[in-house]
Amino acid sequence: MEKPPKAEKCGPFIEMVLDELNCNLDLHDKEKIENEEDLKKFPGHHGGLYIFYMKPDSESDLRYPVYVGMTKQSFKERFERHAKHGVIHEVWNGKFPRDIDGLGLYAYCTHYHGESAKRIKSILLDTFDFALKKGRNTIDISETYPAEWTKRNLEFPWDELKRIADGEDEEEEERKKKKIPSEKGGHFIRFLLDELNCNIDMYDQEEIKDVDDVNKFPAHYGGLYLFYMKPDPTSDLRYPIYVGVAKKSFKERFQRQAADNFNGILSKIWSGEFKFEGHGVYAVCTHHQGPAARAIKKLLLDSFHFPLKRNRRGQLRRELDTSEQLPTEYVKDNYGIPWEECLEKVAAAGR
């Protein structure tokens, strides 16, 4: 075996490595990357370690790895850049591979990111000669080494790989403890409010543009409420920016939010202090009051980072984040938000 061996000849062994890391190799394995439309199927809400490989057709078991990379952006965004001036561009324009016809481009997208992804990428680059990392415009498919044979004949840092996998589990636990920007959690927050039987649509198409618009909100009761932004009244995009509890009435509380020039949410928005472009402010007024409202508010503040807070210098911490929102199931699976426990608390408070 040559040193370092060509990655395309060690496809089965690289699959073995990814299997050991519990990566889902089948996720996009039958989805050839042929045009820009194909890029939309890749995750738009997270990135990490990825490997481009080639194979004769979507049903083939032959896989020839040609590039390993990692991205802090989403896979979708990174691959779109590759399509403009990167690996995908090279393949689409016939610049790679120059000596073989009939191979299509595919990708492994893994769940490893951050330091773990960097270390795995480093191991793979130290061990294998990836054609599109070494500037080769050819690919050697004269033979493919069996995985077990490669394992016996190749020095590979399995112990280090195990430490990375174990460390990823710890990183996963830490990630679950971190807060998500509330705007990116819009889908999950909508899901939670649905589970809490809140009427989200009551004011959903009524933008709060000035003080007169505040008068339409209930003056005889209050409770949990959220302010959110969206691009137009009929849009399904909702970016939550603030959660609060009105002890008196929604109308009275919103009037105070409009009149307070320092802490008032509506005042910050109308004055332009809170930076956003092309979005209006809307509100959800729920029927949850007292202990139930406080339990929901605590869950949201513990789990999400809402932008309308001031730092020690009195400045708002950040502008509106309208980057791609996280799918509900992704948030449920990856951030350990105790939403079911919250539902139980709310149900108990109502009994």
Can you describe this structure in just a few lines?
The chain contains 15 helices and 8 strands. The chain is of the alpha+beta class and 351 residues long. The strands form 3 sheets. A 3-stranded antiparallel beta sheet has the order 2-1-3. Strands 6-5-7 form a 3-stranded antiparallel beta sheet.
Describe this structure in words.
The chain is α+β, with helices and mostly antiparallel strands. It contains 15 helices and eight strands. It has a three-stranded antiparallel β-sheet. β1 and β2 form a beta hairpin. The longest helix has 20 residues. The chain is elongated and about 80 Å long.
The parts where pLDDT drops under 50 for at least 5 residues are none
- Measured by DSSP, the beta-strand proportion falls in 5-15%
First CA to last CA: what distance? 72 Å
* Morphology call: elongated
Radius of gyration: 26 Å
Report the average pLDDT across residues. 90
Report the structural category. alpha+beta
Q: How many strands?
A: 8
> What is the chain-wise order of helices and strands?
HHEEHHEHHHHEHHEEHHEHEHH
Helicity level, as a percent range? 25-40%
What about the largest sheet?
Answer: 3 strands, antiparallel
Strand order of the largest sheet: 2-1-3
Specify the number of helices.
15
